[in-house]
Automatic annotation (TrEMBL):
Keywords per UniProt: Chemotaxis, Cytoplasm, Hydrolase, Phosphoprotein
Ranges where the CheB-type methylesterase domain occurs: 173-365
Protein location: Cytoplasm
InterPro entries with a match to the protein in the record: CheB-like, CheB_C, CheY-like_superfamily, Sig_transdc_resp-reg_Me-estase, Sig_transdc_resp-reg_receiver
Family affiliation: Belongs to the CheB family.
E.C. number: 3.1.1.61, 3.5.1.44
Keyword Membrane: no
Domain Response regulatory: 6-123
Organism of provenance: Undibacterium piscinae
Protein name: Protein-glutamate methylesterase/protein-glutamine glutaminase
Taxonomic path: Bacteria, Pseudomonadati, Pseudomonadota, Betaproteobacteria, Burkholderiales
Amino acid sequence: MSGKIKVMLVDDSAVVRQVLAALLGKDGGIEVIASAPDPIFAMDKMNVQWPDVIVLDVEMPRMDGITFLKKIMSIRPTPVVICSTLTEKGAATSMQAMAAGAIAIVTKPKAGLRNFLELDEGDIVQAVKAAAASNMRHVKAMTMAPFNPTQKLTIDQAMPSSDGAQTSLSAMSVTTDKLVAIGTSTGGTQALELVLTQLSRTVPGIVIVQHMPEKFTAAFADRLNSICQIEVLEAKNGDRVIPGRALVAPGGRHMQVKRSGAQYHVEVIDAPPVNRHRPSVDVLFRSVAKCAGRNVLGIIMTGMGDDGALGMREMHDAGAETIAQDEKTCVVYGMPKEAVKLGAVDKITPLTNIAGLIEAYGRKHG
C-alpha cells in the first residue's frame, strides 16, 4: 500500500464519527475518506471507494457490526478496528469480532467521549496504522480454519488446586519448574487461539501478555477457556503458574512472575506504561528472565512495535529457549522482527509449529 491510509468510519454516533475523523485527520499518513451511521450506508459508499482500514462500532441499527464484519471477510478481507464501549457486554461482543477477523480494539466510554478520545488519540492512530500494515491473507486463513474444541474437564477428572481452581490429576504430577512466557499484540488474539486450542493439559504453566484494553482481557480469557483443554484465566494477583493453566495479563495492568521455592506465581501491578503499553511484554519477559532463568520457553508472536524484544534478549542471555513467529505467518511482523534483530531468538518458526514446540519443551527433562 502506498500513499495515505484510507479509512472509513462506521458508527451510529455522529459525535464519535466527528471526533474520530478529526483525530485521525491530524496524522499526515491517514485520510478519512468516508463515514456512515450503519453498515448499510457503509456498503453503498464502499462500492464507490474501498477503504484500506475500517473503524467499526459493534452495536448499530439495521445491521450489527459482527454481521457486517463477517460479510466483509467473506467478500474482500479488509483490516477492521473495532470501536467498542468499555463494558462487559461490549467486551464480549468485541471478542466475537476479533474471532471473526478484526485486527484491534479501540475503547470508547459511554460518557465524556470527546475528552477520552482526545487523551487516547495516539492509541487510535497506532491501531489504524497497525491494521493497515496487517497481512489479511493470514487473518482470513485463521478465521476460516476448521475448529474442533475438546471437552472441558469433568468433576471426576479433576481435583482442587491450592488456590481453588481445578487442575487435572495428570498435570499435577508434572514438575512446576518450567514455564512458558508468550508476548503478542496485533493479530495475537487469533494467533493465541490457534496455539492454545492445540495444547494438552500437561503443558507447563503459561503466562501471556496480549496488548488489549481493560475489561477486554477477561472476555478474551473466558472465550479461550471455553474452547481449550487447558485452563485459561485472566490473571489475578497471587495466582499460581501451574501445568495446564494459562494466565493472561489483565488490560490496564502489568504482570510479573515471581518464584517462591519451586513454585511460580504472578504479581499484577499498577505502574506507568512501558513501550506505550500496559500490560507490557517487556515487563513480563524481564521478570521471567530474573526468576526462571534457563527454565523458561519464551515466545514472541505477531504484533506492531518492539515491546518484548529487550525482555526476550534478557531471557536469552539468562539461558532460556526463545522462539519468534516467522514473518510469513505474522499478521504484523514487528515485535518478532525486533527480537530477531537483537539476537534474542534461537528459533524462527511458523505459527502452526508453536503448539508442538511448547508440548516438546514440556516433555524435556532437565
